[in-house]
């Protein structure tokens, strides 16, 4: 097994996740099998209880693991299926060490960070790296490990020490360290400054790790004299210094690495370069086509995203990616209009009429309306109004998780005239509980107690839109993350009024998919289809939300073989942590006319 470690220096948010994913892509293009591990040095056991404002979205895996959003990048870039163990946290490591101590496994020894915690980290990495994630038997050839945070963070010190030891455990030729650092350009002098990277590498070396490759983030390609200076002061050959400069969309990052021969540098360090190596020249023709297609798109499709966390696009990262995969498959440029759900409510009309008018204007101009998942009652009334507007005006609507429950509540209030219809999440005393707490859920413990992971949904109506979108299969496996569900005791009343529950679980008691048969496209799903969307294999429900349904059904062959891409998205003129490798030149997804 070969290992590639990706670390970051100077500042956070440089794009280590995209860099690690792109390294995986280029190695896979060389004919190698690749797996990935993300190390998060926080004390949380997993990301499940973290606020989206704190840490972005929680990505859900097939096995129910609630993990860092970077694992979503790995899965999308590499088309693999990871497990919860591919996300290592301080919480998991310390919990495992303490459990062993309580069992007496350390035989009375004093349990210390070195060697017990560091050994646990190394053993975890070796064990998980052997697990196949690409559907094939046997372990991968290379494991790409991303260390979260920045070199020098106190919470990552045990991992730094463990990885230093690990490099000696696996031996020379089996470990390659790629350090992502910043080379800023001061506007005053217009000169690329190397000092931050020099200090970052010095700190890394002082902790026992020596970089083999420098990946330098900058606004433009590094000048030759800058490369030579970095090589001299950081003790890294100039041919092993690559620039990750601003590009139109992040599908260009693997191409940047290839063009600068980064794969050759990595393969040399790993002793995979040469006549007898299984590695070959990277074949990235499909990636090149995707990047070029993304840059060339011009016909817009406007999607109004009505949510609670619209101020932070990372909170809906997988939803954005799924929309992007779908729109590119339809050869349309995605325009995301962020609509804060609270701005649609009557209270906002009184307190801030400009925000109210702007929100409704965006909603009325949309080609489709999407209400994603979420928790809590803030903005619920605005989401209900958005669902009602889509239903009454025959605008394509996709509700995910809470978005499906919102559609059910709105139908109960508007069509069945149940004015107090609600979810018990928002009103525990409602007389018409359309959405209820799941019987098996825990009301005392939050972490890991939801209905999580891949679950099977069976289609109960053959001639329905969702079944056709999924290729007329009898069932579909999608990932879930929820505590509340549609009240099965009220289903008959909904169906008599025209709301169709086309998908249910294996018991037939848990509602998974709703549709309005007489609407062009009004679909709600309890699961999260965004987590399994891939660039070349977009989720069908997203594809239908981005285009005319009949046209989508007629070109399913194009969708299944189409190109998808991850490109820049604009929001309020600010680039978020996710899109640090994008430019603001207008090529990409647009959100209210600005990039994120």
From TrEMBL:
Under which EC number(s) is this enzyme classified? 6.3.4.2
Q: State the CDD domains in the record.
A: CTPS_N, GATase1_CTP_Synthase
Query: Has the keyword Cell wall biogenesis/degradation been applied to this entry?
Result: no
Keyword RNA-binding: yes or no? no
The CTP synthase N-terminal domain sits at 2-272
Annotated catalysed reactions? UTP + L-glutamine + ATP + H2O = CTP + L-glutamate + ADP + phosphate + 2 H(+)
Q: Which residues form the Glutamine amidotransferase domain?
A: 313-543
Which pathway does this chain act in? Pyrimidine metabolism; CTP biosynthesis via de novo pathway; CTP from UDP: step 2/2
Its BP terms in the Gene Ontology are: 'de novo' CTP biosynthetic process; pyrimidine nucleobase biosynthetic process
Kindly list the GO molecular function terms attached to this UniProt entry: ATP binding; CTP synthase activity; identical protein binding
The family database entries (InterPro entries) matched by this protein are listed as: Class_I_gatase-like (IPR029062), CTP_synthase (IPR004468), CTP_synthase_N (IPR017456), GATASE (IPR017926), GATase1_CTP_Synthase (IPR033828), P-loop_NTPase (IPR027417)
Q: Which UniProt keywords apply?
A: ATP-binding, Glutamine amidotransferase, Ligase, Nucleotide-binding, Pyrimidine biosynthesis
Q: Report the PROSITE patterns cross-referenced here.
A: GATASE_TYPE_1
Q: What does this protein do?
A: Catalyzes the ATP-dependent amination of UTP to CTP with either L-glutamine or ammonia as the source of nitrogen.
Similarity comment text for this entry: Belongs to the CTP synthase family.
Which protein is depicted?
CTP synthase
């Amino acid at each position: 097994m070969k290992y590639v470690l990706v670390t970051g220096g100077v500042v956070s948010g440089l794009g280590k996740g995209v860099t690690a994913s792109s390294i995986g892509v280029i190695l896979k293009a060389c004919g190698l099998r690749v797996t990935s591990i993300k190390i998060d040095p926080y004390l949380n056991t997993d990301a499940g209880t973290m606020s989206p404002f704190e840490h972005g979205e929680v990505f859900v895996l097939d096995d129910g693991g609630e993990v860092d959003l970077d694992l979503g990048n790995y899965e999308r870039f590499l088309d693999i299926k990871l497990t919860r163990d591919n996300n290592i946290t301080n919480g998991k490591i310390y919990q495992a060490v303490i459990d062993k101590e309580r069992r007496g496994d350390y035989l009375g020894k004093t349990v210390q960070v070195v060697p017990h915690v560091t050994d646990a980290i190394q053993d975890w990495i070796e064990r998980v790296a052997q697990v196949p994630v690409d559907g094939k038997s046997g372990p991968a050839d290379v494991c790409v490990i991303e260390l979260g945070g920045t070199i020098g963070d106190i919470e990552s010190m045990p991992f730094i020490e463990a990885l230093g030891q690990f490099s000696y455990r696996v031996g020379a030729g089996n470990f390659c360290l790629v350090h992502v650092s910043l080379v800023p350009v001061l506007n005053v002098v217009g000169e690329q400054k190397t000092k931050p990277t020099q200090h970052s590498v010095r700190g890394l070396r002082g902790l026992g790790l020596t970089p083999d490759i420098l990946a330098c983030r900058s606004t433009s390609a590094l000048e030759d004299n800058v490369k030579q200076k970095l090589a001299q002061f950081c003790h890294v050959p100039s041919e092993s210094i690559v620039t990750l400069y601003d590009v139109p969309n992040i599908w260009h990052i693997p191409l940047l690495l290839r063009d600068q021969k980064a794969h050759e540098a990595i393969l040399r360090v790993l002793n995979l370069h040469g006549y007898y190596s299984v590695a070959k020249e990277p074949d990235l023709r499909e990636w090149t086509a995707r990047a070029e297609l993304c840059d060339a798109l011009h016909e817009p499709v406007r999607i109004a995203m009505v949510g609670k966390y619209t101020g932070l696009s990372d909170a809906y990262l997988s939803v954005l990616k799924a929309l992007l995969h779908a729109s590119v498959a339809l050869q349309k440029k995605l325009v995301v209009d962020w609509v804060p759900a609270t701005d649609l409510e009557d209270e906002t009309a009184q307190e801030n009429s400009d925000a109210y008018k702007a929100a409704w204007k965006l909603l009325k101009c949309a080609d489709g309306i999407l209400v994603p998942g979420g928790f809590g009652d803030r903005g619920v009334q605005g989401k209900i109004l958005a669902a009602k507007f889509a239903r009454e005006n025959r605008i394509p609507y996709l509700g995910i998780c809470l978005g499906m429950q919102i559609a059910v509540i709105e139908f109960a209030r508007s069509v069945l005239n149940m004015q107090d219809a609600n979810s018990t999440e928002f009103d525990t005393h409602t007389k018409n509980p359309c959405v209820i707490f799941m019987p098996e859920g825990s009301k005392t413990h939050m972490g890991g107690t939801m209905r999580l992971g891949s679950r099977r949904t069976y289609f109960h109506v053959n001639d329905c839109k969702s079944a056709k979108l999924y290729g007329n299969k009898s069932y579909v496996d999608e990932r879930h993350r929820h505590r509340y569900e549609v009240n099965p005791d009220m289903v008959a009343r909904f169906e008599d009024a025209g709301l169709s529950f086309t998908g249910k679980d294996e018991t037939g008691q848990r509602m998974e998919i709703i549709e309005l048969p007489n609407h062009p496209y009004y679909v709600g799903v309890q699961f999260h289809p965004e987590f399994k969307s891939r660039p070349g294999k977009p989720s069908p429900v997203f594809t239908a939300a981005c285009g005319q349904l009949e046209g989508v059904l007629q070109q399913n062959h194009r969708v299944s073989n189409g190109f998808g891409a991850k490109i820049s998205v604009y929001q309020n003129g600010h680039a978020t942590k996710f899109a640090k490798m994008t430019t603001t030149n207008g090529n990409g997804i647009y959100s209210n006319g600005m990039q994120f």
